[in-house]
Specification:
Elements (H helix, E strand, L loop, with lengths): L1 H9 L11 H16 L7 E8 L2 E5 L8 E5 L6 E9 L2 E6 L11 E4 L25 E4 L7 E2 L16 E4 L22 H6 L7 E6 L5 H11 L4 E7 L3 H17 L2 E6 L5 H19 L4 E7 L1 H14 L11 H11 L3 E2 L6 E9 L8 H9 L2 E4 L2 H5 L12 E2 L8 H19 L1 H5 L9 H17 L9 H9 L7
Parallel strand pairs: 8-12, 10-15, 10-16, 11-12, 11-13, 13-15
Antiparallel strand pairs: 1-2, 1-6, 2-5, 3-4, 3-6, 4-5, 7-9, 14-15, 16-17
């Protein structure tokens, strides 16, 4: 037998040596080859041993971190899960849907088939890279105008996606030296941002707000009025009711026409919330790589962090900062750094990430971490919202770190003067309101009092009103008269 295998490995079987058994062995091996070619690959499998809260444990199966698998209950529908950790021979799995009906010993099957063994005489296949084992999601121009879930399944009942290609959900880190610098302003259609907090193409901005201060309305205004080519909206961890309201009432038909919405509301598993944020970023990367200017809106980064916290605590990771494990603060920059500019002359992803400041606490751990990794932040004030001032942007606490490279020296000087007078008025507001300030005591404050109504007109804007970049800057420059 060894002699036959050696002969097979060196070339086709022949009977040049005159051995009468070679023809029999050749016929036998060809028959075996035909039978094995018709048999499907055997998928490795294990069995379910434990369910503890959100995490399931399986044994008898060895899979790398991030691999997908399917749990096969007896008499029920299959449930997909992902490997989120392991301990010795035990795998920790996080399901992507409800686990009702599972019982001990349920079969766990890997979704990825093992590589085919090499044929005799062929070299073994190269070892697969982790990027080749990554989960693939649909992308393409056909996604524009559609509403999807975190797995790429349509939620809008408009039929199949017809996606032209698949793309790995997790991309490789971008070399920072290959990114184009932020040099061109992006018109977002909001006057206060265009004039005083100029945002550049490829910039990552945080939108810090408590609940009920109008962040969804502001995001909808930017999505409808921005000059970007494509808008990608990720609604992560929000209430299901708000998903439909945002699409139909805030985003509207005009905004949805050039947008892709990925919705992973609060009632889905934490794994699907993480995947929804990664999928929205993946779609934005697809359009950026094709030279498009993309506006990525992620609502919210806090819910993304909470989903990672749920998974990390469930598999035993210790909390370190107000209940947040270390992996949360490692995942945030991994998501945010995927946005930004591409190579010189290519597309860009301008990202707006909302951060929910619980109890209006700007020192919340997630808010503090987000400020450190973003290129600026816009703070929404509850006091302004309660007073009917929309958008409720607190200009004094907001900043755009890339603005210096985007605006002219004259524009920058007017921004500095605006903030100086505005801040001077706010510090003396109580004295002015009770009539305790005597006119002429402070020339700068006198100027601030005289011009303050024009400040408010610049900062306020109706939902149905679009303010382009040029008119916003012109209104700012016209505040102080011809002499500046």
């Amino acid at each position: 037998m060894a002699q036959v295998l050696n002969l097979t490995a060196s070339g086709p079987l022949n009977n040049a040596s005159g051995n009468p058994h070679l023809d029999e062995w050749r016929s036998f091996l060809e028959g075996c080859r035909q039978v094995t070619s018709q048999v499907s690959s055997l998928l490795p499998s294990g069995h379910l041993t434990r369910i503890n809260g959100l995490v399931m444990e399986a044994s008898g199966l060895k899979l790398p971190l991030g691999s997908s698998c399917r749990i096969m209950p007896v008499g029920g529908s299959a449930i997909e899960a992902e490997v989120v950790g392991f301990n010795g021979e035990r795998l920790f799995l996080m399901p992507s849907e409800d686990v009702y009906g599972l019982s001990p010993g349920a079969r766990v099957v890997a979704l990825e088939a093992p590589s085919q063994p090499p044929r005799l005489g062929q070299p073994p296949p190269a070892r697969r890279r982790s990027i080749d084992r990554a989960k693939l999601v649909p992308v393409g121009e056909s996604l524009l105008g559609r509403v999807l879930d975190g797995a790429g399944r349509p939620l809008d009942r408009l039929g199949p996606l017809g996606a032209s290609s698949l793309r790995p959900l997790q991309s490789r880190p971008v070399n920072p030296m290959s990114r184009a610098p932020i040099e061109q302003a992006l018109d977002v259609g909001v006057r206060a941002i265009n004039a005083l907090l100029c945002v550049g193409r490829g910039q990552r901005m945080g939108l810090f707000a408590g609940s009920g201060v109008g962040k969804s309305v502001l995001l909808g205004m930017m999505a409808r009025y921005t000059a970007a080519d494509v808008i990608v909206v990720g609604l992560i961890g929000e209430r299901g009711r708000e998903v439909k309201e945002f699409i139909e009432q805030i985003l509207g038909e005009q905004g949805l026409r050039r947008a892709v919405v990925v919705a992973a509301p609060a009632d889905v598993s934490p794994l699907m919330r993480l995947q929804g944020a990664a999928y929205a970023t993946c779609i934005a990367e697809y359009f950026r790589d094709r030279g498009r200017q993309v506006l990525l809106i992620m609502d919210s980064l806090t819910r993304y962090a909470m989903a990672q916290r749920e998974i990390a605590l469930a598999i035993g990771e210790p909390p370190v900062t107000r209940g947040y494990p270390p992996s949360v603060f490692a995942r945030l920059p991994q998501l945010v750094e995927r946005a930004g500019n591409g190579a010189e002359g290519g597309g860009s992803i301008t990202g707006f990430y909302t951060v929910l400041a619980e109890g209006d606490d700007q020192q919340d751990p997630i808010a503090d971490a987000a400020r450190a990794i973003l290129d600026g932040h816009i703070v929404l004030s509850r006091t302004l919202a309660d007073a009917g001032h929309y958008p409720a942007i607190d200009i004094e606490q907001s900043i755009s770190r890339a603005m210096v490279n985007l605006v002219s020296p004259t524009h920058l000087e007017h921004i500095r003067k605006f903030k100086s007078l505005f801040s001077r008025y706010q510090r003396s507001r109580d004295l002015i309101s009770v009539g305790a300030y005597a006119a002429g005591s402070d020339p700068q404050l006198d100027q601030a009092i005289a011009i303050y109504p024009r400040f408010e007109r610049l900062l306020q804007q109706n939902l149905s009103q679009r303010a382009d970049f040029a008119s916003s800057v012109a209104q700012l420059l016209g505040l102080f008269g011809p002499g500046g």
